[in-house]
Amino acid sequence: MDSNAETPLLTSKHITTNAHFTGDAQDIPPINGISDFFVEFGVESKKLWYLAGPAIFTTVCQYSLGAITQTFAGHVGTLDLAAVSIENSVIAGFSLGIMVGMGSALETLCGQAYGAGQLDMLGIYMQRSWIILFVTGLIMMFLYIFATPLLLLIGQTEAISHAAGKMALWMIPQLFAYAANYPIAKFLQAQSKIMVMSYISGVALVIHTVFSWLFMLKLGWGLWGGALVLNFSWWFMVVAQMVYIMSGTCGQAWSGFSWAAFSNLWGFVKLSFASAIMLCLETWYFMALVLFAGYLKNAEIAVDALSICTNILGWAVMVAIGFNAAVSVRVSNELGAAHPRTAKFSVVVVVIFSFIVGVLLAILLTIFRHQYPAIFANNLEVQQAVYALTPLLAVCLIINNIQPALSGVAIGAGWQAAIAYINIACYYIFGVPLGLSLGFALNWGVKGIWMGMLTGTVVQTIILIWICVRTNWEKEASMAEERIRKWSGQKRIVEEQ
């Protein structure tokens, strides 16, 4: 297992090959003039959106489940909104970062097995990941059980801690839905069955919205109704995807449950843990933003206002994550195919699209800055606080659309270790201390905390842009080719092609 540490390039290359959207037969020619640029931009845009479109839709739908529950909670009461936002951002957010990160190890293994024609291994890898993630879920369940004393220990108010702790207990089934869902998602993604995931996520979102309104507001069940529907929606996606898999649509990739899933678990644990590190550093950073707001005076208003902003930001980031997934495949595919100019140009295209989407979202938010806070909360004080944060949110929408796309470039090029160190430096050594200094020492409140942490994201984005500009893409392509030669099974795969 450990010898596969750099398999993502092989994975992405063969996933795209089997999905019939491979790179060109040859590298793009040098671009001379505006007309050449727009011709190549059109070609690359189609390849990018073929991947990004379904990925964006799926991630937006899945994120919206918790966000919609949070939105309805704002119409139940300020304490209810604070409880849901703390549970959703801190407890569930912490768990989600670990589960998604550990599940990402499966992307490497399933992609390699699929590219090598070892379809029967995909189901075994998925089952192996289930075992690891369910055990992880059992360990993390204590975070949910003892959420109230833990939140009190880190300084949250007693009212918010007890309400969020009660919500956390109700959300334990969601934790195990995470453990089941993400291995399934990587299993299907490796076979390019992305549209199936999109359809199921879309249906789940519609069901979730209707029943959340019915139970939380119409029937007056409040947080209990929200927890019930949120658990059901996640497990609906898990069961629907498993029905699809077991119906025979995946062919040899699913041949039933096997005892082989219990072999080599330790190697799988190490690979899963390594995959989680980079993603968790990103996820926990924004989780900490809501957590710090709980230490301010009038904590309920501060947490509510910031949670509404991060709710909106989360939707926008889901779009960026779609670009992240698409460009990581494009870059790794073209580097693996020894097309350095195409790889470099795909970076240009994804940054342009990410910037345009971010600007459009920021403009839309600014136009409706007087109206949108009322959608999320009835309390006028919360609405005014959200309105005051709107300029920061608009800037954040632009930055946080570009940054994930650049992280996708780093993943595609195999720079994960370097980016993890950059994240630690920019986020936790620079951004968090600056945010705490502005928020508490200078008494700027929630706005100061956010400005400081946003500055950390800006610095990280600038560094990523600098790395992409300074990169010798011909050298990266040569390094990718050298790695491919060393991977076991690669010779047989090339001969079969």
Automatic annotation (TrEMBL):
Membrane topology qualifier: Multi-pass membrane protein
Membrane-spanning segments: 130-155, 167-184, 196-215, 221-244, 265-292, 312-333, 345-365, 385-406, 418-442, 448-469
Tagged with keyword Plastid: no
GO biological process: xenobiotic detoxification by transmembrane export across the plasma membrane
CDD domains on file: MATE_eukaryotic
Principal cellular location given in the protein's record: membrane
Domain of life: Eukaryota
GO terms assigned for molecular function: antiporter activity; transmembrane transporter activity; xenobiotic transmembrane transporter activity
Compartments reported by the entry: Membrane
GO CC, one annotated term: vacuolar membrane
Keywords, sorted A to Z: Membrane, Transmembrane, Transmembrane helix
Keyword Transcription: no
Pfam families for this protein: MatE
PANTHER family per UniProt: MULTIDRUG RESISTANCE PROTEIN
Family to which this protein belongs: Belongs to the multi antimicrobial extrusion (MATE) (TC 2.A.66.1) family.
The protein's name: Protein DETOXIFICATION
